Amino acid sequence: MTMERRALVRPLDLRSASDGQTIAGYAAVFGAAAEIGGQFREIIAPGAFQGTIAGDVRALIDHDSGRVIGRTTAGTLRLAEDDVGLAVEIDLPDTQDGRDLATLIARGDISGMSFGFIVTRQLWDETGDIPVRTIQAVDLREVSAVAFPAYDDTSLALRSLESARRERRQNNFRAAASRVLARKMSIDLRTRRLVSKA
């Protein structure tokens, strides 16, 4: 499975204390339909992160694995699901990246969060004018403070839609084949009864 990324433009809160600075915000919001490349809508269901936020997740700058600013196992990144979505708190390191990020957030230059994930459970609904993908569970890999929040992985999600359609067609074919086989067996059984009565 391939990792996808989604972003959210939502105010980030910068808090200063004697022991350092912390940023807080949301990497995802539940129930809000997002247009993905004009191809479909995507909704993140409450509970989608529940099975993964206790894992080893990293906080990055712009999805760059060389710019780590927090980690759940180190206690410098805290994740929680609440009524709104995936809440994120990052204790910024006293590094050049940490100090620069604090300045950029304070100035309003960086105003978004994003997250990298692999979908582990989803539901596609194609009954409306445009398909709707409901993400029910993910394997969360990272959260990032980003300069350009954007939904940039449309092609990956579209492949997921095609896969769901293919699976639905295969299931329909199997169900039809089972009905045909059941019908043949029923006719065969009736034929045997008639022959045995004669």
Helix content: 25-40%
User: Would you report the number of β strands?
Assistant: 11
Shape: elongated
Kindly report how far apart the N and C termini lie. Answer: 61 Å
Low-confidence stretches: 151-159
Q: Which structural class best describes the helix and strand composition? A: alpha+beta
SSE string: EEEEEEEEEHEEH
Radius of gyration: 24 Å
Largest sheet: 7 strands, mixed
| Portion in strands | 35-45%
Number of helices: 2
pLDDT average, as an integer?
83
How many separate domains? 1
General description of the model:
This protein is an alpha+beta fold. The chain has one domain (4-152). It has helices spanning 96-107, 154-197; strands at residues 4-9, 13-17, 20-29, 34-36, 40-44, 58-61, 64-71, 77-81, 85-91, 112-125, 132-146. The strands form two sheets. Strands 1, 4, 5, 6, 7, 10 and 11 form a seven-stranded mixed beta sheet that branches. Strands 2-3-9-8 form a four-stranded antiparallel beta sheet, covered by helices on one side. β6 (58-61) and β7 (64-71) form a beta hairpin. The longest helix has 44 residues, at 154-197. The termini are far apart. The relative contact order is 0.21.
